[in-house]
């Protein structure tokens, strides 16, 4: 049986902006930084999405990747 200490259970949370599906039955959401449209549609049910906030564990950003949209990638 695995045991955890209080420190392991306590994670640092950050308050981030997200887009979530407007339909209560649909549980889809995405971080704001991954949305490319001004007013996105839900990728699962195609309903409109609304801005919201969520408390999530802090992510370690190990690399600074940049996404190239509409351009060829150089090797």
In brief, what are we looking at here?
The chain has 75 residues and is mainly β. It is 5% helix and 28% strand.
Q: Secondary structure elements and their pairing?
A:
Layout (H helix, E strand, L loop, with lengths): L5 H4 L3 E9 L7 E3 L17 E9 L18
Antiparallel strand pairs: 1-2, 1-3
Keywords:
75 residues; mainly beta; three-stranded antiparallel beta sheet; 1 helix; 5% helix
Q: Could you walk me through the main structural features you see in this protein, from its secondary elements to its overall organization?
A:
This protein has a 3-stranded antiparallel beta sheet, with no helix packed on it. The model has no long low-confidence stretch (mean pLDDT 79). The protein is globular, with a radius of gyration of 17 Å. It contains 1 helix and 3 strands, in the order H-E-E-E. It is mainly beta and 75 residues long. Strand 1 (13-21) and strand 2 form a beta hairpin. Helix content is 5%, strand content 28%.
pLDDT averaged over residues: 79
The percent range for strand residues is 25-35%
Instruction: Measure the end-to-end span.
Output: 49 Å
Query: What is the strand tally?
Result: 3
Q: Segments where pLDDT lies below 50 for 5+ residues?
A: none
How would you write the strand order of the largest sheet?
Answer: 2-1-3
Main sheet record: 3 strands, antiparallel
User: Overall 3D geometry?
Assistant: globular
Computed Rg: 17 Å
How many helices? 1
The ordered string of helix (H) and strand (E) elements is HEEE
Helix and strand composition category:
mainly beta
What percent of residues adopt helix (DSSP H or I)?
A: under 10%
